Automatic annotation (TrEMBL):
Record protein name field: histidine kinase
GO cellular component, one term: plasma membrane
Matching InterPro entries: HAMP_dom (IPR003660), HATPase_C_sf (IPR036890), HATPase_dom (IPR003594), His_kinase_dom (IPR005467), HisK_dim/P_dom (IPR003661), HisK_dim/P_sf (IPR036097), Sig_transdc_His_kin-like_C (IPR004358), TCS_sensor_his_kinase (IPR050428)
Catalytically driven reaction(s): ATP + protein L-histidine = ADP + protein N-phospho-L-histidine
Source organism of this protein record: Streptococcus agalactiae
Domain HAMP residue range list: 176-230
Domain of life of the organism encoding this protein: Bacteria
Keywords, ordered alphabetically: Kinase, Membrane, Phosphoprotein, Transferase, Transmembrane, Transmembrane helix, Two-component regulatory system
Length: 454
């Protein structure tokens, strides 16, 4: 069985889920890092600000006391105490848990100090009171500052996870929408596999992004596959159609020769028919293979080619076929005309057109190669019976012959020559057409892009 009715892929998490988990984990780690970093940075800034504020408040209070202002034991979160020169407390303002008899630090040229007791930390500074044998101690509880930072961290710890959840859910929905074209690509591929419908294409939006480009590339690939499938199907149909007659004739003649031929002459006649049909089959297969090869341009290498030299050689060689015939050949070929092409295919193109002209001309064939603007124009003309207007659009079809009965008389072929010519012209980006009227001959014309030589 070539295709299964349903494709069973291994179960795995979708790429949308994986990406969501990846960036959610990254954001979570980033948030934790931001919280920790914010805490320590905020603490450092707050402590530095608190120290400067404590020093400034202590200086202000000492100046106020020096001027005789009223003593305040507590103000703006700061406790104030006044000592005499001997370290005896004159005015007492201490927070709970602070040791009163600590040495004053201005003697040791220190200002700010820390004191911890009973799981509490205090920050204090000693400032002399100008004009008096006294000094001021300003005390702040550090635990209060830590509490504020902890409350801030707690608030962030509540808000940021909510933001993380919103980002995760929103990101998942955005990714799901963004990856919708991939789902469409998958569905299209499954449809093609299950139904063998190679005409199906991925619908692309007008958005220019990587997924649109991917869909366009896959559509191009599907078109190539469809083209190959159609060519193979056409090839099989053509072969079966065209081989049916010669095979039937061969079987009939061989059976007649075996069962009914009474003498050598009758047997020889049967052998001649068989030989003639065998040659026809050989020619058919060869031309079909050439046509199939020409329909795959990726395998054909084009290169710069002096078309003038090539045509002069072909005309010279082909003119010998007209020896001992009433057909007259004349040619006009301009020099140094270059194109991008493949010499073997172009030779086949010329041979098919020339042999076609020989078959149907009365007595004259003319060939020309010239330049017109940025194009190289090649034409071959005969003065034969011509082609009707109705038939001119059909002569490029495989196996089509102007003779509607499609009989194999002495001048008929198998109807592949012009189809191959058309395909070779397409490979070379050349335009081809025929100008013809009944009883007025036919002229086949091709225009090739000119190669500019530096």
């Amino acid at each position: 069985m070539l295709f299964q009715s349903k494709i069973n892929y291994p179960k795995k998490s979708s790429i949308i889920t994986q990406i969501t988990l990846w960036y959610s984990s990254f954001i979570f780690i980033l948030v934790i890092g931001v919280l920790i970093g914010s805490f320590f940075i905020s603490k450092s800034i707050a402590e530095n600000k608190s120290e400067k504020n404590l020093e400034a408040k202590a200086v202000q209070m000492s100046q106020a006391l020096a001027k005789g202002h009223r003593y305040e034991a507590f103000e703006d979160g700061i406790f104030y105490s006044v000592y005499d020169q001997n370290g005896k407390v004159i005015y007492s303002g201490f927070p709970k848990g602070f040791k009163k008899d600590l040495d004053h630090q201005h003697k040791h040229k220190k200002k700010l100090s820390l004191f911890s007791m009973e799981n509490r930390t205090f920050q204090y500074v000693d400032i002399p009171i100008s004009g008096k044998n006294q000094w001021l101690r300003a005390i702040r509880t550090v635990d209060r500052l830590d509490k504020q930072l902890t409350e801030l961290l707690f608030s962030l710890g509540i808000v940021l996870p909510l933001i993380l959840i919103i980002i995760t859910v929103g990101g998942y929905l955005i990714l799901k929408r963004a990856f919708r074209p991939i789902q469409e690509i998958t569905e299209t591929a499954q449809f093609i596999t299950q139904n063998e419908d190679y005409t199906k294409r991925i619908i692309t939006k007008n958005n220019e992004n990587e997924l649109t480009e991917l869909a366009a590339v896959i559509n191009t690939m599907l078109a190539s596959i469809e083209s190959s499938f159609v060519r193979e199907k056409q090839f099989n149909n053509d072969v079966s159609h065209e081989l049916r007659t010669p095979v039937t004739v061969i079987l009939s003649e061989s059976e007649y020769g075996k069962n009914y031929a009474e003498n050598l002459i009758e047997a020889k006649e049967s052998f001649e028919v068989i030989h003639r049909q065998s040659l026809s089959m050989k020619k058919l297969v060869e031309q079909l293979l050439e046509l199939t090869k020409a329909e795959n341009p990726l395998s054909i290498q084009l290169e710069p080619l002096n078309f003038s030299i090539m045509m002069k050689q072909l005309v010279s060689d082909s003119s010998r076929l007209l020896d001992n015939t009433p057909i007259h050949l004349d040619s006009q070929i301009e020099d140094d005309l270059w194109i991008i092409g493949q010499q073997t295919l172009l030779k086949r193109l010329f041979d098919n057109l020339f042999s076609n002209a020989i078959k149907f001309t009365n007595n004259h064939i003319s060939i020309s190669l010239r330049q017109s603007d940025n194009q190289i124009v090649f034409s071959i003309k005969d003065n034969g019976l011509g082609i009707s207007v109705d038939d001119q659009s059909k002569i490029w079809n495989r196996f089509y012959q102007v003779d509607s009965a499609r009989t194999k008389d002495s001048q008929s072929g198998i109807g592949l020559g012009l189809s191959l010519v058309k395909q070779i012209a397409t490979i070379h980006r050349a335009k081809i057409w025929v100008d013809s009227k009944p009883d007025d001959g036919s002229q086949f014309t091709l225009t090739f892009p000119k190669l500019k030589k530096d």
